[in-house]
Each structure stands twice: as C-alpha cells, then as structure tokens.
Amino acid sequence: MRRIGVLALQGSFIEHIATLKRLGVEPPAVKLPKDLVGLDGLIIPGGESTTIGKLATTYKLIEELKRLGEDGLPIWGTCAGMILLAREIEGDSQTRLGLMDIAVERNAFGRQVESFEADLVIPALDGVSSEEEKGKSFRAVFIRAPSVKRVGEGVEVLAALDEGVIVAARQGNLLATAFHPELTEDNRFHRYFLNLVEL
Predict the structure, then answer these.
(1) Residues identified as active-site
(2) What was the pLDDT predicted at 113?
C-alpha cells in the first residue's frame, strides 16, 4: 500500500487524513523530518500559509521538503499548500518551497466572510471517475483562497473560474488547488492525486 503523508503542523490536515482513510489509505501525520522517510506522496493542507511556513522552518522540514519535491516525490498543496509550493507569491517574501513554476496571490478573493463555493468543470478528473461521475462538475470550497496569476512552461492548468482565474494546476509531480477538496464528500481529487503517485 502506498504511504501518503499529510503535513500536520496546522490547518485542515485532519480532513485530508479522513478522506484518505475512506479511500483505504493509512496516512501518516508528518510533523518532523523523520516522518518523511519512506513516503510515496505528501499533501500540504490548507490553513495559514505563513504559520505553516514558520513551523516547517522551526521543525527543519523546509529543506527536506524541497529536496523531496525536486527528486520527484508527488506533492499536493491545497489553498495554503498551493502558496507554499509556488515559486512566486505576489507582494510577499514569506517562506515557501518554490517548487512549482507559478505565481500566486494570497487571499485573492477577500477575507473569510467572502468565502464561497463554485462548480468547476475539471476534465482531468474523468480519468479517475466512475461512469456516473464522468463530466460531473466539482463543487469547490474557497476559504480565504489564493489564485494563480501566472503559470510557467510545463504547468498544466486543470481548472479556472468562469472569469478565467486559475484555481488548479499541475506540474509533473506537483499538484496545487486553491480550494479545499477535503471539505467535500467528493473524493475525486484525492483519487487523482493517488493516481499521480502511482505513475
């Protein structure tokens, strides 16, 4: 069985762990560098990106996470995790992994009270969908969410809002979503990531 770790420093890591367990995966909670040993994939959850970055620095995780990502470990960042994966954060110099060739804007849609949900058409999910699920939109939950302002060469856009704002992308072994799939009953994005781990 593949070992998919979930960075458990702050944020919605419990919800990711619960979703993975429903899919038959026993995910270790990652808090220290030793917890990264033997992983086949890693999820960086939503939460407060500056706090996660500071804690990851304190626990000496940053350099090891960078090395693993550069060596091809599949890593999925949701919301704050997307910010940490990004090469560039507009107007901010906070701690980041800088693994993914994207530029992001923090809190792109406003404060927590301006959180919203949107139905996204994401063709990439059809590859892990049942016949009933194929073509079905994905109900995405945005909470103080970032957006992608620029993608580099080799970055595949997976989803955008109606006005063209990019909210999900993939670059090789790296996956980023501005929204929170772990807060829904729809586990297709987790299946998509598990499929990425198997490649």
Answers:
(1) 79, 180, 182
(2) 66
